[in-house]
Amino acid sequence: MPETHNERRKFLTAAGIGLALPMLESVNADGASSSLPVPPARRFVAIGTYLGFHTPSWFPRKPGAEYETSEVLKPIERHRKQFSLFSGLDHRAPNGHSNWRNFLTGSGTRSVSLDQVIAEYVGDQTRYSSLQLTCGSANGTGQISFTQEGVPLPMVGRPSVAFSQLFSSDSDKARMRYVFESGRSVLDLVLDEARSLDHRVSQTDRQKLSEYFSSVRDVEKKIQKRTDWLDRPSPQVDYQLPKFDPAAPDLSLECESIMYDLMALALETDSTRVISLLVPGTGQVFTIDGEKLIAGYHGLSHHGHDPNKIADFNRIGIEHVSRFGRFLDQLREKKDSEDQPLLDSTIVLYGSGMGDANTHNNSNLPVLVAGGAFRHGQYHAIDRTKDPSSTPLYGDLFITFLQQMGIEREQFANASGNMNEFLQ
Fold first, then answer.
1. CB burial class (10 A; 0-12, 13-18, 19+) of residue 65?
2. pTM attached to this predicted model
3. Does domain 41-167+246-423 have CATH number 2.40.30?
4. Which of 23, 345, 400, 418 could form a disulfide with 124 if both were Cys (CB 3.0 to 4.6 A apart)?
């Protein structure tokens, strides 16, 4: 029934719902707060640039607290006491663009991303358990967030759509209610179709159907949660969107700036506590400061050590970092419910799943960690040559993030340690 399948696919994507396991309760059923202590960090933001950076222009030359800020990071020098830098970290994952998805998942295939692990614990406290954003349309392998089953979650690439979801008008809510209510009947049909196969398939397929039933039940729970939130007033914000969405590839820098604004508003209004942003990179030819660059973005990433291409690749990197710096400005200015800067209770991970786009190498990733009540202000250069078996993995840093948010985990993908000594 291809028509039914297409309708179902549109519904799941339009409603922004992915197939993930049920959220874990962190508040009581009646909405009262639990008696658990409040962790130092309560929000998580992950930002990944698809084509990475020219890492010799990203990493400082010397580690420690007195490092000299590198060329690409100069736009955020004012924040250096609020972030930490790491080199020598990666997931020991295979190389290539297709393995960029390991950025938040580790080296495993069909595995859950860090943001969704966190969303399991804090996602039921807000209107949206998590947000997945990009700028325009991300290219094929550009995916950042994955469900427990390893299914990539759809990303919103248009600022107007993201704004509408976060700060819905009454008419928007009426349309959403119609979609949700229609969706329930679609899901009923899905289950009826699947159950009709249950007694006619192999044991292996029966197990797959069982997993599918579990996923559909979770979607139903998410629909119910969204329906419940429709009865609550949306937060009112004083923000003016542009007259049109800068969704074209060559306008993705403008789109990136707006998405950062919306991310800051989403955190300030407690609409969500988990956000991922994929900064895409394709063949777009950017114009920066009125000057058109000598090649497309992807072509510049394959610079072949040509100094002119590296210079233009760095100009794009500096533009990305400048926009990220303004996002940090907002998190330092905006306050949470306890009248503290949002940055103090928000872990912000900034970097890439690509260590060297010139050779498609996914090792030695650029890693920046800001906020989250961590001890910051240093550049940590991890030397893997001394004893590679005992040096930290990128996943060890993820375990530190989880523990800082009160989530006790001792393993993530292929990592089983932590990096608390660097940040606490």
1. exposed
2. 0.81
3. no
4. 23
CA atoms within 13 Å, Cβ hemisphere of 159: 24
Q: What is the DSSP string of 93-146?
A: PPPSGGGGGGGTT-S-SS---HHHHHHHHHGGGSS-S-EEEESS---TT----B
188-236 pLDDT per residue, tens: 666 666 667 666 767 777 666 666 666 666 666 666 666 665 566 678 7
* Amino acid letter, residue 23: M
Here the tokens at position 184 are 């329930």
pLDDT of 147 > 70? The answer is yes
The band of 367, judged by pLDDT with boundaries at 50, 70 and 90, is very high
Query: Given its phi and psi angles, is residue 418 left (phi above 0), alpha (psi -120 to 50 degrees) or beta?
Result: beta
- Alpha carbons 104 and 224: distance in angstroms, whole number: 28
In the numeric block, which tokens belong to residue 152?
Answer: 């990539």
Give residue-wise pLDDT tens across range 296-305.
Answer: 999 999 999 9
Residue 364's region, left for phi above 0, alpha for psi from -120 to 50, else beta, is: left
Domain boundaries, the chain: 1-36+168-234, 41-167+246-423
- Count Cβ atoms within 10 A of the Cβ of residue 177 and give its class: 0-12 exposed, 13-18 middle, 19 or more buried: middle
Strand boundaries in 245-314, DSSP class E: 274-279, 287-288, 291-292
